[in-house]
Amino acid sequence: TSVYRRWSTKEALVQAALEETMDHARDLPDSGSLEGDLLALAGALAKFLSSARGVGVVRTVFAGGESATVQALASTAWAEAGGASAHLVIARAVKRGELRRDADAELLLFTLAGALLHRVFVERGVVDEVWVRRLVNLVLYGTNKPLPARAGRGRPKAG
Known about the structure:
Blueprint: H1 2-6, H2 10-21, H3 34-50, H4 52-63, H5 68-96, H6 105-122, H7 129-141
């Protein structure tokens, strides 16, 4: 009952939680590369999703998923926080010539977010820097093309 004294509805509680916690992807620095920017974005999201607060917010949003109001709140929070930064990452990559203008940016971003959500909430797996790097590499380079040769890539060895 103490929760409902402060927030009269589930929607009000979700809105307050989202407003307070969706700053994980704001003001991402420009690393100078799409790969670096995606690592920063995915790393920030992974840190948020792995936190007690992130777990609570996502579970609350999922639990209220049938509510059109909760869905709208979550969508707005994404657009205002992570979505703006994520689209800036894409715009910078297009400007640098690292990504085609017609690339499916939404699918790229949702693939990253979806994989992170699945790892944390379905698999209950660790989302460390190595895992995030593997995910970003998969999204950027696929499974059949060799990764560009660069020092310090942190690529897992086969075998």
